[in-house]
Amino acid sequence: MAQASASIRIPVSAEKVWALTGGFHSLHEWLPFIKSSEAKEGGRVRHLTTDDGAEITERLQTYDNSARTYSYSIDKGPFPIKDYLATFKVKEDGDEGAWVEWSGVFTADGVTDADVEELFKGIYVGGLEALQAYF
After folding, report:
1. What per-residue confidence (pLDDT) applies to 130?
2. Consecutive sets of 10 residues in the chain, 135 residues long: mean pLDDT of each?
3. H helix or E strand, kind and range, residue 134
């Protein structure tokens, strides 16, 4: 099983970061390449559209507002993977700081583990850098 992860410190409170990122359908508000997020199945599924028109369907697996974390799987998307499970976490890091972690485990499908690990590492790092720049 392949895996990738990224983390970053953001110099605002974890509460502020979670207020933006904690909504399962808020990805398009801070992740630049996500054009839209449409809620389906009572909010447990998000249908994402990217700037280049790709469509991704993700399913919420776990959500813990007090711990500021959620996990999700990908039901459909343009990625050469299967059995994808990602976790997004926001933790306190000092008085006015947040530590944000984004990680995933998955099985490569038709490509090497290294290829998909590099792909998702790039998505996570780029996404967290965009989140940091938002603040």
Report:
1. 97
2. 97 97 94 95 96 97 98 97 97 92 97 97 97 96
3. helix 113-134
**Helix 113-134, helix 14-21: angle, nearest 10:** 110
Taking the C-alpha atoms of residue 54 and residue 50, their distance in angstroms, rounded to an integer, is 5
pLDDT at residue number 94: 82
Report how far residue 47's alpha carbon sits from residue 3's, in angstroms, rounded to the nearest whole number: 23
Q: For residues 130 and 126, give the distance between their C-alpha atoms in angstroms, rounded to a whole number.
A: 6
Q: What is the structure's pLDDT at 77?
A: 95
Compute the distance between CA of residue 114 and CA of residue 50 in angstroms, rounded to an integer.
24
In the chain, the domains with their CATH numbers are 2-134 (3.30.530.20)
**Angle of CA points 8, 52, 23, to nearest 5°:** 45
